Amino acid sequence: MKIDGLIYSLTKELRWLIGAFIIVLSIGFYSGLLFVGETSSANPNGIEE
Asked: What is the sign, positive or negative, of the torsion defined by CA atoms of 39, 43, 47, 49?
């Protein structure tokens, strides 16, 4: 199966759709990582009254 150059054989609209999907997926992934990093630190100052 030859995959090299497959993206160039698609229509312009489909390439834009795939590109936008990858960008939105990347933003969501990295913002999720930032959220986990912010909320997973359990320090005693935040637990004590």
From this structure: negative
